[in-house]
Amino acid sequence: MPQPTPRKAPLFTVTADTLVAVDFTPRTGNRPPGPYRRLFTTPGARAFTLGNLLARLPMGMFSVSAVLMIAGARGSYALAGAVTATGLAATAVVAPWTARLVDRYGQARIAVPATVIAALGSLALLLCVHFDAPAWTLFASYAATATTPNTGGMSRARWAHLLKDDDGALHTANSFEQAADELCFMLGPVLAAVLCGTFFPEAGTLAGAVLLLTGMLLFAAQRSTEPPSQRRARTRSPFRAPGMPPLLAVCLATGAVFGSMEVVTIAFADAQGHRSAAGVVLALQAAGSCVAGLLYGAPKPSGPADARLPWCIAAMATLMTLPLLAASLTGSLPLLAGALLVAGAATAPTMVTTMTLVQRRTPEGRLNEGMTLAVTGLLGGIACGSATGGLLVDHLSPAAGFGVPLTAAAAALLIAAAVPRPAGGAGL
Fold this sequence. Notes:
19 helices, globular, transmembrane, membrane, MFS transporter, 2 strands, transmembrane transporter activity, MFS, Growth Hormone, Chain: A, mainly alpha, single chain
C-alpha cells in the first residue's frame, strides 16, 4: 500500500484563540556554509587568527608612525626616510635568520622573545626622538625592530599544517591571509596618522608596539595549532630548492610594483595639490586587492598553481596600464583613484598563487624560512621600486612614473613565462 506523501510543516497554525509560530527551517536551514565559514570551523583557527591580526596590524603602522614622529620632531623628511630605510635593510638581513630559528625551535619559543626585542626597539626610538638624542641613536633603535617575526608567514604555516590534506581549503586560507595583509596595510597607515595627529607624535609608535606584543602573546598561546618544530631537519636551504630562485625573482619584481606605485601616487597627488588625499587613493588600491583576494579564495582553484601564476601576473600587468593611462591622458586624481581600485584587483591573486608555490617549493621543516625569503624579496623589490619611481618623478614627471609598476609587472611576467615546468613540478 503506498505511503501518503508527508506534508511540509506550515509556516504557522491558527486555532480559535492562539497563533503559534512553527518551522522556519525550509527557508534558512538548507544553505551550505561558505568556504570561509568552513575554514574557521577548524579547531583553534579563530583564536590564532585574532592574535595574528592584532600583531600584524602594526606592520602597516610603524613606518608611517616613524616618519611622522621623526619629521615632526627633527624637521627632516630626509632623516626620517633614511631611518626607515635602514630598518628595511636590517629586516631583509635578519628576518630569514629569525624564521630559521622559528622553524627549528617552534613559533612560541622564538617569536615571543624576538617580538619583545622589536617592541623595545620601537620604544627606544620613541624615547630617543622625544629626548632629542643624537641622530645615530635613531638608526640603531629602529634597526632593532628587524627582529619582528613574519607574522603573516607564521599564520600561513599554521594553515599549511592544519590543512595539509585539503588543497582547496588551503587555497581559501592563503586567500584570506592575503586579504588580511591588504587590510592591515590599508588600515595601518590611517590609524597611525590619526593617532599621531590627534594625540601626540609618538602615539602611533607606542600603540604599534603595544598591539604587536599583545597580539603575539595571544598568537603564541595557541599551542594546539602550532606546527611541530624541526630541530633535526637536515634539508637544503629553501633558497636552493628547485624552482625557488625564479619564484623569488617574481617576488622581487612584484615588490617593485608595490614600491613604485606608492611613491609615484604620492608624487602625483602632491603635484595636483592634494597630497593629503594620497593615503585615501592608495587605500583604494589595497581595498581592491583585499576584495579580489577574498573572491579568488572562495571557489576551488582550477588547475595547478604553477600554471595559474603566469595568468595572474598577465592580468596584473594588463591592469597596470590603467593608472598610467589615467595619469597621462587625464591628469585627474579621482580617475586615477578608480584606476588603482581596479588595478589592485590583480595583485592579491598573484600574491596568493605565489605564496602557494612558495609553500610547495620549500623543503619540509623550513616553511617559515621559505615564506620569509619571499617577503624579503618583496621588501627588496619595494625598495628598488621606490627608488626607481622617485627618479622618474624627479627627472620626467609623476605621470611618467606610472610606467615603473607597469614595467615591473611585465618583468615578473617574463620571469614566470620563461621558466619551463618540469614534469615533477620543480619549476614555477
